[in-house]
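Whiteboard transcription, Tuesday session. T.W. wrote the structure tokens on the left side:
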């Protein structure tokens, strides 16, 4: 069945036809299914080898450029790599000394493995891994020595006892680490299982359970100690500081996205084709998209940083013994709640159904003011978080609330622009209910609704008001600015697209007001963080004093001399 002119199906069918006629670059031709390239001579052996070598060299250059850019973007990656090499070098030197244990070189692999596994990017992650590895090893050593003594008492059943104990221990420990509250200690459970099985099996072959257990524990302690000393003493990298900077950065990103969405909507920015990365919610270079996406996607990163930051000792500006890192996650959650609204605003910009430009311009100044005021609040809160400073005595939300109220008043005054007036039921239902028996057939709820419509018709009959197509925003009378909409020339044409386009402006406006309403929760979360973390008090800036002219200073001098004369007299 053919789509009706003006309907959704008709619009999307036209779009598909345009894409077939003008395919994007790099795709195959719609006519013959082959690339538009001349493949003559490309399949010869020499050409294939030369092309493979060229492609390999190009990939190596790209990898080298990416590695260089990664080091330039964050120089800490280079420092961390050098620290890892230094730790491995030190542990190798200690193993070569063969002191204080003579047979240290035999099991030296455990010290090297400990450095590789425990040495993490941040101090908190290193302490967490070191604690889990040490606790898992120590507890496994104790249990393994106990089970070794019991297995020796079993006599001929010694092997069976060892196998059964490994099965029971592996099952219980694996089930325990799946418990939600044990998630931070998952690595400790893994180390426990490895150590227990290693001691039981190797100790059974060598009959040196105690020597195997003590050697493994000493080597693990040695590797963990070297890792901690190198990581803490040489250019320490703190997970808490990364969390602090991440939350502050997300404020700026959401503010940039908010301004971009409002500006793009007011400029009626229309995408010829929405980028596939945005449609599939992947990383993109679009600042309007990447700002709020970074805030929404940072949940897992924040949870990991909080888990590591709790292990770190007081340092730098975070001098409290139990610093409230969890409150940073709470602030970020409130910011993420606002970012969801910005995501919806970006969806309005990307929508294929847009309001007419002349309608958007009616609310231009109010929408622009709300967007700028909301972005200003986010940036100011981000600076407060970054500088660890409390809010001042002035209400930070005063300006954005006034802007939202002004926008709401404008919506109340010009609400007729946010709907398709021809589709209103006012006036239509009343014609159907001309006979009293029709009104009596309605139930109570429909009667009340019909009464409201009758009253609304007497106050506002849109079909009797002239409507201006210029959507004048002046203060003249509403009746003088209205002219009836032009009738549709073709009977039966779908009105769905026209109705939806009228409502798209209402959607964008309501989302922007909703964003302002969510800012209060964000401010409350920041105030709680600033109080618990003992942020410094803000510096109240006094208004600059006016410079006194020469006549002002002369008059003040004369008055001072006159007062001195009166006192002497």
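and on the right, the sequence the group agreed on:
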């Amino acid at each position: 069945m053919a789509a009706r002119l003006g309907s959704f199906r008709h619009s999307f069918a036209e779009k598909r036809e345009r894409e077939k006629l003008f395919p994007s670059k790099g795709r195959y031709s719609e006519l013959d299914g082959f690339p538009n390239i001349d493949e003559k001579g490309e399949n010869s052996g020499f050409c294939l080898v030369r092309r493979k070598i060229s492609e390999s060299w190009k990939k190596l250059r790209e990898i080298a450029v990416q590695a260089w850019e990664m080091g330039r973007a964050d120089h800490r990656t280079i420092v961390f790599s050098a620290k890892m090499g230094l730790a491995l070098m030190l542990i190798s030197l200690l193993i070569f000394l063969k002191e204080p244990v003579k047979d240290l070189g035999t099991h030296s692999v455990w010290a090297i493995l400990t450095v590789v596994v425990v040495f993490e990017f941040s101090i908190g992650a290193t302490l967490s891994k070191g604690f889990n590895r040490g606790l898992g090893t120590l507890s496994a050593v104790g249990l393994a020595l106990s089970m070794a003594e019991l297995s020796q008492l079993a006599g001929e059943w010694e092997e069976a006892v060892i196998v059964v104990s490994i099965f029971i221990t592996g099952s219980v420990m694996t089930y325990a680490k799946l418990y939600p509250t044990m998630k931070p200690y998952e690595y400790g459970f893994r180390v426990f299982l490895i150590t227990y099985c290693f001691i039981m099996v190797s100790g059974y072959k060598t009959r040196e359970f105690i020597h195997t257990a003590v050697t493994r524990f000493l080597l693990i302690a040695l590797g963990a100690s070297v890792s901690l000393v190198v990581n803490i003493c040489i250019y320490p990298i703190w997970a808490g500081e990364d969390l602090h900077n991440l939350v502050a950065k997300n404020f700026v990103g959401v503010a940039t996205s908010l301004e971009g969405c409002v500006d793009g909507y007011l400029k009626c920015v229309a995408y010829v084709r929405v980028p596939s990365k945005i449609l599939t919610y992947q990383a993109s270079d679009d600042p309007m998209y990447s700002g709020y996406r970074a805030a929404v996607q940072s949940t897992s990163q924040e949870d990991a940083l909080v888990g590591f930051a709790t292990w770190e000792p007081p340092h730098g500006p975070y001098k409290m013994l139990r610093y409230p890192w969890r409150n940073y996650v709470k602030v970020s959650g409130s910011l993420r709640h606002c970012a969801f609204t910005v995501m919806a605003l970006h969806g309005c910009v990307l929508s294929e159904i847009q309001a007419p430009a002349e309608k958007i311009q009616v609310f231009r100044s109010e929408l622009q003011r709300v967007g700028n005021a909301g972005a200003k609040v986010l940036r100011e809160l981000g600076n407060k978080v970054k500088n660890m400073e409390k809010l001042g005595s002035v209400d930070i939300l005063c300006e954005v609330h006034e802007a939202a109220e002004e926008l709401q008043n404008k919506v109340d005054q010009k609400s007729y622009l946010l709907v398709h007036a021809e589709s209103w039921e006012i006036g239509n239902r009343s014609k159907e209910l001309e006979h009293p028996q029709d009104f009596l057939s309605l139930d109570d709820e429909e009667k009340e609704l019909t009464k409201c419509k009758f009253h609304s018709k007497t106050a506002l009959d849109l079909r009797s008001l002239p409507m201006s197509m210029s959507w004048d925003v002046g203060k003249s009378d509403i009746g003088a600015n209205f002219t009836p909409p032009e009738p549709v020339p073709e009977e039966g044409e779908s009105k769905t697209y026209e109705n939806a386009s009228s409502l798209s402006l209402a959607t964008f406006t309501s989302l922007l007001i909703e964003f302002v309403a969510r800012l209060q929760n964000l401010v409350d979360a920041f105030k709680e963080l600033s109080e618990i973390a003992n942020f410094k008090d803000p510096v109240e800036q006094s208004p600059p004093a006016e410079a006194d002219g020469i006549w002002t200073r002369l008059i003040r001098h004369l008055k001072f001399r006159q007062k001195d004369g009166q006192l002497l007299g």
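Someone added at the bottom: Residues 239-275+284-420+495-533 form a domain with the Methane Monooxygenase Hydroxylase; Chain G, domain 1 fold (CATH 1.20.58.220).
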